[in-house]
Amino acid sequence: MTSKLIAIVAGVGPGTGASVARKFAATYPVVLLARNPENFESLAKEINSSGGKAVGISTDISDPSSVKNAVESIKKEFGSDVGAAAAIFNASGGFLRKPFLEVPEEVFSKSLDVSAKGGFLFSQASLPFLLKGVEQKSQYPPTLIFTGATASVKANALMSSFATGKWALRALSQSLAREFGPQGVHVSHAIIDGVIDIPRTKERLKDQGPEAKLSADGIANDYWWLHTQPVTNFTWEIDLRPAVEKW
Amino acid sequence: MTSKLIAIVAGVGPGTGASVARKFAATYPVVLLARNPENFESLAKEINSSGGKAVGISTDISDPSSVKNAVESIKKEFGSDVGAAAAIFNASGGFLRKPFLEVPEEVFSKSLDVSAKGGFLFSQASLPFLLKGVEQKSQYPPTLIFTGATASVKANALMSSFATGKWALRALSQSLAREFGPQGVHVSHAIIDGVIDIPRTKERLKDQGPEAKLSADGIANDYWWLHTQPVTNFTWEIDLRPAVEKW
Amino acid sequence: MTSKLIAIVAGVGPGTGASVARKFAATYPVVLLARNPENFESLAKEINSSGGKAVGISTDISDPSSVKNAVESIKKEFGSDVGAAAAIFNASGGFLRKPFLEVPEEVFSKSLDVSAKGGFLFSQASLPFLLKGVEQKSQYPPTLIFTGATASVKANALMSSFATGKWALRALSQSLAREFGPQGVHVSHAIIDGVIDIPRTKERLKDQGPEAKLSADGIANDYWWLHTQPVTNFTWEIDLRPAVEKW
Amino acid sequence: MTSKLIAIVAGVGPGTGASVARKFAATYPVVLLARNPENFESLAKEINSSGGKAVGISTDISDPSSVKNAVESIKKEFGSDVGAAAAIFNASGGFLRKPFLEVPEEVFSKSLDVSAKGGFLFSQASLPFLLKGVEQKSQYPPTLIFTGATASVKANALMSSFATGKWALRALSQSLAREFGPQGVHVSHAIIDGVIDIPRTKERLKDQGPEAKLSADGIANDYWWLHTQPVTNFTWEIDLRPAVEKW
Asked: What Pfam families does the database record attribute to this sequence (chains A, B, C, D) (predicted)?
């Protein structure tokens, strides 16, 4: 790997984040951000031991000083002039299916803190790296991708908390796409409309067969595809769902 | 005025909030919530001196304990069993047209605090009153209305902060409409797509004539219309703009 | 009734069309268009015998020459300079819930012919009357309203035929709203998201009680409300559904 | 090339259609449909002389009998059991930027005939081939892609004719995606939101540099990417625009 440009992935866990990190690690040194080091340690080891480079940084994405520290750590590790080819925001929080009057304020705020404020802080932290990636003539246009969900476009009953944060994040991504596209940064939003096939969802949709859940590696491929789109053909938004999904 | 049901208006100022309060005060005692008492004092006096009843309560809509105090004040004033016929959320914050990398975290958080968390706290505070309004056989279905903006459906460049809060609020309103419609509460969202004709906007669009701005009293009439829709014909969302507006 | 301005309703039958015609007939002489005279004869009689004025014209809304004849008949009846205060397009066709490969080309074309081409011909026929209504200082801004459906915004499986025509009609209404708003004509689109309570739907949703279906008179009231909005506060789109509807 | 499965492209001309045909011809024998043989003759020659296989069939996509003839020709050429791996609908018509009252009925109908009825006929013709592709275990899920435009999601003033057909086509694609996804056919819709860089648009946006227009080959790559998505990760809709495009 000879790229001087890095990829930054926020919200690394045993699902989409890990698949995305592995995919981009084949080309770029990757920075793995997660609150709990357990979520990136084995993944970083795996990438580092298989010829790639990964650096994990324990980060609370909704805390301005924690995100600032992560930026400093990245500069210390890769040099203060390092540019980024990709930044992927995969964090989420505040998921709760509950009657509205029973939703604790803490859960509602958690959704906003992670999805909306976290998306904001991650974007303010990563865009300067991405703009440097433009200056440094990244092979593919530097790309900022946000992971959305069904709840990003449909706010169902009992889902007020999660949906609110996810709509906010989608708004952020659209505004950024409009502002930074002309500056050469590709901003995208992916609506993941279904259950992702990860350890945590093992028991779900079992009776519907192995194709009823989204492949996390497939999502990573789709993110890579977005990353490789040329400056003449940017996609802001894709939806992704299993063929058998009802929608 | 013989109604025992009240109307609650959050975000009262010299614009839409005041027009809405006056309109609903013709039928219901109104509770006026604003952070700064200056924003409701003269309006309350005006309503009270012209045969209506208005009670102003200084409230920070994004602060759980302040909202809780407002609820207590309402119960003290109108009785602990009082029901509401209408609750209107008209607060907003975090408006800033600025390149994303120059948006202070405080402004971004302000938008989320007022529009998203404020909308949440107001809804959790007012829905129990509205559900009592259903029990008490309100003449018109008790109604919860949220004031949106162009930025509720379009996140333009340089508008990330305001749009993020407004999309979040729209999501909240949609989820609540789905949950509380079947319980008899009518939840609506109004997309105000243009400049409202209020003292603060006096200088704007002057060359386009008096019809280039939305009438605040007109918006109040539209909210009243939403309020009077029967349980068989609920509208979740309306857009409102001057005839001459480009969109 | 002293109005010199007329209202034109296309797609009159024993449901929304009749309710809308009755509502607007309280203020304006109404022209009733339907292919089959049976659909307007008793309604016209009812309106004429109760102090209003109604003229029925047998019209195939998807046939250019038939629509042209209707325009001539209107001018003959009301004078060649007559203006219109309202025009409501309520026709639809091509409803079929069927696997796509079993949809006959005739049914698919029927949907396009009535909803899309019919909407086009009706608009081209009625807009000159509405623009005259603007010149003649109609009390309320002359209004062109299109009746949409759930299928106007969601194209479900097995519903390709109906949805295709309805999306086309919605597009037409949006383009016209943008073009004719600045000329003083108010163009609106109503998404009727549920079953309307009319003779034909008597057996549907019976177990869910009388409030599970939309009131046709309620829809007429909503159309009237749209009609009375001032030029500063135009709504392009409303959705309408029973409170208990799942959406 | 060993694939027994074919790709069918409707609306071949010197732009997107040709790029898509070339791209898919690298893997599949391609059938080129266009009304005017001039639009596919040199392309077919080019593909055939460079190791691929292309068959051009003169077809009026809005004429049922012409489309039926095309189906017969395909079966005669490739065998009556031939399956398809991909079918791409790239035809459009009825583009006219004009005040609504000056739009000839013929132009409006042309848009509906090509985009809506043409999309219908092409889908009914190609889906049986695509379903056979599923049975014959196509390497990638058989894919039906529709080319949309800005006017597929926004009906601007003066654009009623083109927008109406394009919204109808989008509705069709959504309904088909929901019906045929569970049967293993991947149905997608691409919103081409900008000017495509083809001979006909040579003079447009010249002052904005070479990156202000969409690359037709880039669109073809994106269609290929959609085609290669696995059955667990289907995208219904993508938008595509130059980085510098205002939207």
From this structure: adh_short (PF00106)
Task: Establish if B245 touches chain C: CB-CB under 8 angstroms.
Answer: yes
Count the neighbouring beta carbons within 10 Å of the beta carbon of residue D153. 17
**Cα–Cα distance between A11 and A110 in angstroms, integer?**
15
pLDDT tens-digit readout, A152-171: 999 999 999 999 999 999 99
Distance CA D139, CA C245 (A): 43
Residues of D in contact with C89 (CB under 8 A): none
Burial class for C38, CB neighbours closer than 10 Å (0-12, 13-18, 19+)? exposed
| Number of Cβ atoms within 10 Å of the Cβ of A82 | 18
What lies within 8 Å, CB to CB, of D42 at 6+ separation is none
Residue C247 within any structural domain of the chain: no
C-alpha to C-alpha distance for B176 and C59, rounded to whole angstroms? 44
Q: DSSP assignment, residue A207?
A: G
Instruction: Note whether D174 contacts C: Cβ–Cβ < 8 A.
Output: yes
- Best of D129, D160, D237 to disrupt the C interface (most C CBs within 10 Å) is D160
- Choose the mutation target among D166, D175, D191, D236 for the interface with C, i.e. most C CBs under 10 Å: D175
Local confidence band at D3 (pLDDT 50, 70, 90 cut-offs): low
Residue B184 forms contact with C (CB below 8 Å) = yes
Helix H or strand E segment including A88: strand A84-89
To the nearest whole Å, the CA of D231 is away from the closest chain A CA by 5
Shortest CB distance from A167 goes to which of B103, B158, B170? Answer: B170
Task: Find the CATH number of the domain harbouring A82.
Answer: 3.40.50.720
Please check the confidence at residue B193 and state whether its pLDDT lies above 90.
yes
Is residue D8 helix, strand or coil? strand
List chain A residues with CB under 8 Å of D244.
181-182
State whether C101 and D127 contact (CB < 8 Å). Answer: yes
Q: Which domain holds residue D177?
A: 5-240
Rg (CA), chain C: 17
Contact across the interface for D179 and C117, Cβ inside 8 Å: no
Report phi then psi at B73, rounded to 5: -60, -40
Contact of D94 with chain A, judged by CB distance below 8 Å, is answered with no
ipTM for the complex shown: 0.97
Q: Count the domains in chain B.
A: 1
Which residues of chain C register pLDDT less than 50? Answer: 1
> Among partner residues C233, C242, C246, which is closest to B240 by beta-carbon distance?
C233
* pLDDT digit string, tens, across residues A52-79: 999 999 999 999 999 999 999 999 999 9
- Collapsing DSSP to helix, strand or coil, A197 comes out as coil
- With a CB cutoff of 8 Å and minimum separation 6, the contacts of D64 are C105, D121
Give rounded-to-5 percent helix, strand, coil for chain B.
Answer: 50, 15, 35
Smallest CA–CA distance, residue D99 to chain C, in Å, is: 8
The residue type of B43 is: L
Instruction: Report d(CA D65, CA D71) in Å as an integer.
Output: 10
pLDDT of C11-23, one tens digit each? 998 889 999 999 9
The residue type at C82: V
Query: Rounded CA gap, C175 and B199, in Å?
Result: 33
* Chains touching chain C, criterion 3+ CB pairs below 8 Å: B, D
Q: pTM higher than 0.95, yes or no?
A: yes
- Specify if C245 maps to a domain: no
The single residue listed with the structure tokens 């080319």 is D147
pLDDT, residue D1, reads 46
Q: What letter represents residue A43's amino acid?
A: L
Following DSSP, what letter does each residue of B179-242 receive, concatenated?
HHGGGT-EEEEEEE-S-B-SGGGTTTTGGG-GGGSB-HHHHHHHHHHHHH--TTSB--EEEEB-
Residue A118 domain-assigned (yes or no): yes
Position C39 in a domain: yes
